[in-house]
Amino acid sequence: MRAQADAKRSEARQKAAAALIEAAAAKERRRNPPPKLVAMPEPTGNTEADAKADLDALVGGFRERAKAESRRFELATDSEYWCCLCFQTREQKEAFLGALNLLLHGDKYIDGRVVAKQLGISLPAADVPYNTSAKVDPTWVEFIDKKR
C-alpha cells in the first residue's frame, strides 16, 4: 500500500513539474512570439499581380532566412575568438597573472573580457545569441526516469 501511495505521489510531482515547465514555455512564447517569417504584401484585387507579389515576398523571405542562417552558422562555428599566451615556466605564468590580479579568475582559461577590463581596454559590444530558455528539448524527454 505504501509503495503504491509513494508511486502516486511521485507521479503527481512529475506531472506538476511538467506543468510548470509547460507554463514557463507558454509564458516565454507570449513574451517573445516567433517573428513573422515573411511580410506578405497587401492584396490589390488584381489576382495576377497579387500572386506575383506574394511569390516575390516568399522568395525574399527564403533568401533572408538563408542569409540569417549563414550568419548564425558562421558565428556558431567561428574558432578565431581565442588566443594563447605561453611562458617558459609555471612560475612565469603565475607571476604574470598575479601582477594583473587575474589568478582569482583562473590559471588556464580566463574570460578575455575580464583581462581586457583589468588592462583598461574597452572591447566592442557583441550580440552572441545563446539559448537560455527553460524549455525542455523533446529529444531528451525520453531519458527522464519517470518512475522516480
Features:
flat; 3 domains; single chain; mainly alpha; 0% strand; 5 helices; 148 residues
What fraction of the residues are assigned to beta strands by DSSP? Answer: under 5%
User: Which term fits the overall shape?
Assistant: flat
Distance between the termini: 17 Å
Question: Helix coverage percent of residues?
Answer: 55-70%
The helix count comes to 5
Task: Count all strands and give the number.
Answer: 0
Total domain modules: 3
Mean pLDDT, rounded to whole units? 85
Sketch the major β-sheet: none
Q: Which sequence of SSEs, written as H and E, runs from N to C?
A: HHHHH
Q: Show unreliable segments.
A: none
Backbone CA Rg: 26 Å
The SS-based structural class is mainly alpha
Region (Disordered): 23-49
Question: How would you describe the overall organization of this protein?
Answer:
It is a single chain. The protein contains five helices and no strands. It is mainly alpha-helical and 148 residues long. The protein has three domains: 1-34; 36-79; 82-133, no CATH class. The protein is flat. Residues 23-49 are annotated as: Disordered.
